[in-house]
Design brief:
The structure is a homodimer of 128-residue chains. The longest helix of chain A is centred in the middle third of the chain and has 13 residues. The first copy, chain A, contains 5 helices and 5 strands, in the order αααββββαβα. Chain A has 2 domains: 64 residues, Arc Repressor Mutant, subunit A; 54 residues, Ferric-uptake regulator, C-terminal dimerisarion domain (Dna Ligase, domain 1). The relative contact order of chain A is 0.14. Helix content of chain A is 39%, strand content 23%. The mean pLDDT of chain A is 88. Chain A binds a DNA duplex (30 and 30 nucleotides) through α1 and α3.
Chain lengths: 128, 128
DNA sequence: CCAAAATCAATAATGATTACTATTATTGTT
DNA sequence: AACAATAATAGTAATCATTATTGATTTTGG
């Protein structure tokens, strides 16, 4: 995996964005620096960075991939109204991987807890 | 909400399929009964059934929705090689929703734990 | 039986992602 | 600095998943 300005900037963009950006968000931000960058480049590098563990890829019910610079232990909260993804600081028992591994017979690499619900913002909107 | 043959069959198909079928799997199975059924019908009804809580919609990193007839408490294991989804019987503390709700300020409806790793089958294949 | 509402099939349209190709950049080595 | 091998890129086409549209058909409640 060689150096490229594109990849470096993509990593920086994700790392400076708390809001779990989608591929498209990263693409829009990157175009401000490299106007003729290709969308395929963004896809390729985000997936590479996720595979190498420098960022994290998050599933979400809206059918689009989100990326998270925070590779430390934490979980996610996805609003079913606005599809935003929030971090939830983790304090759940860390031995769940081991426990689950015993139950499934495969090799477990990681886990994520995704909470679904309605976020603070959307709750406010509903009341108005 | 239960008077169309299509919806009834879709529900039965999911309920009789342990393997967390995708929209397309359900579509293929349904066509054996109703050859000219529309894919849109499958999408609409699977989402309706998931909203009404009769089945469960599962997110997965491969970008396709999976559906699960098992609406009881359990978690999921997704193989990063074959993308199959397995159930993991749940015995994790149920108070995580409450705990997370305090932390995020929104309203939490449910949560899912998805474990990622390499499943038993794929481990075997690797060795050969 | 009739009218309103719900559902349907078929297909078009959209949105996300991947594949492909010719070109350019990076790397380690002379 | 020039070289070849490799990796990455831009641009675009193709693919895959999903949603929207439309007009016909079916169900429901009176």
């Amino acid at each position: 995996m060689n150096y490229s300005r594109q990849r470096e900037l993509i990593l920086k963009i994700v790392q400076s964005d708390m809001s779990h950006p989608t591929v498209d968000s990263v693409y829009q931000a990157l175009r401000k620096e490299i106007p003729n960058v290709s969308l395929a480049t963004v896809y390729r590098n985000l997936n590479l960075l996720a595979e190498s563990g420098e960022i994290r890829k998050i599933e979400s019910l809206d059918g689009t991939a989100h990326f998270d610079f925070n590779t430390g232990k934490h979980y996610h909260f996805i609003c079913i109204h606005c599809n935003k993804v929030y971090d939830i600081p983790c304090d759940v028992a860390p031995e769940v991987d081991k426990k689950a591994e015993e139950l499934c017979g495969g090799k477990i690499i990681s886990h994520d807890i995704s909470f679904q619900g309605i976020c603070h913002e959307c709750l406010k909107l509903k009341k108005n």
